[in-house]
Amino acid sequence: MANQNQTDNSEITLLMITSRPEYQNLFFLLFLSIYLLTLLGNFLIVLLIHLDNHLLQAPMYFFLSHLSLADIIFVSTTIPKILINLMSRTQTIAFDECLTQMYFFLTSGNTDNFLLACMAYDRYVAVCHPLHYVTVMSHKCCLFLVSGSWIVSGLHSLLYTLLISRLSFCTSMEIPYLFCDVYPLLEFSCSNTRHIKLLAQTEGVMDLLGPLAVIIISYALIFSTIMKIPSTAGKCKAVSTCGSHLAVVILFYSTISCLYFQPPSSYSAQKGTFISLLYAMVIPMLNPFIYTLRNQEVKSAIVRLLGRTRAFLRK
User: Fold this and answer.
1) CATH code for the structural domain at 19-307
2) Is the dihedral of CA 240, 241, 247, 253 positive or negative?
3) Would you say 123 and 60 are in contact if contact means Cβ atoms under 8 Å apart?
4) Is residue 247 exposed (0-12), middle (13-18) or buried (19+ Cβ within 10 Å)?
5) What is the spatial distance between Cα 294 and Cα 244, in angstroms, rounded to a whole number?
6) Phi-psi category of 205—alpha, beta or left, where left has phi over 0 and alpha has psi -120 to 50?
7) How high is the pLDDT of residue 182?
């Protein structure tokens, strides 16, 4: 076809945050601050957990360290390219770079999805079966769940990356997104993408709804158990163990629902940009703060780390 070119030589034009030059420097500083704050917060979580034996031995924090690692990869996949485009006043990305960005974006995002389900199951065992918690949530079980989350997410992303890399694309490719994702690329392909779209709709929905079902069932059983606790103090203690995770779950899935499952008639570029920024930047930045602000164990670990740091500096 005359309007096709080799995908490995093509460039893709991404959505620009703003076309007004006077705002581009402002957005650059804002996004750079968000990126650095996200890296700092998530690196601190990983560092705290792996330097504190008490936290590292707890399955919840083992999962949390991998969630923070996935968030670091997630933001490092999307934000640096947005910053480069703002600084250079360009909107383009090479096709190979776009595929690489999409692979790591999907892998880290799906890993978040699976890890949130693992953490919900962990809370279910802790609240509903506390006497069997150590046996059920063994280190071997946690390694299996975390490894499975990364491997399944990586294979899922590799499948779409390979399928899209074999497609032909029109000469002019302008996608109304801030970063490369499966659906926008499929829309602008000159090849027949019906089968890939069908796969994305069925497998993608199952990939999302499977972990979400685990979370919903886990919390239904958790709240059923909490309601049977006779004392108010006992109920509050049980709820407090789940509060941070539940807040992250609500943020994560509500944003995904708005981003991928809104009716086409209600879509607008401004709305899509806002939701994309919320999903790609704000949520990974908030996660460390949600888990630390009301978490006494993490606060205690920070105090212990600061104490060891002061002792080391005095030597």
Assistant:
1) 1.20.1070.10
2) negative
3) yes
4) middle
5) 8
6) alpha
7) 84
* Residues 150-171 pLDDT 10s: 999 999 999 989 988 888 776 5
Check whether 238 has a pLDDT greater than 80: no
Using the 8-state DSSP alphabet, how is residue 279 labeled? I
CA distance 39 to 201: 32
Question: Residues of the chain with pLDDT > 90: what percent?
Answer: 36
Residue matched to tokens 């407090």: 240
Count other C-beta atoms under 10 Å from residue 183's C-beta.
14
If one counts every other C-beta atom within 10 angstroms of the C-beta of residue 44, the result is: 16
Residues 6+ apart with CB under 8 A from 17: 23, 24, 27, 82, 86, 178, 273
**Structure pTM?**
0.87
On whether the CB atoms of residues 106 and 153 are closer than 8 A, the answer is yes
List helix spans (H) across the chain.
Answer: 21-51, 53-56, 59-88, 95-128, 133-136, 139-165, 182-187, 194-227, 232-240, 243-260, 269-277, 283-293, 296-314
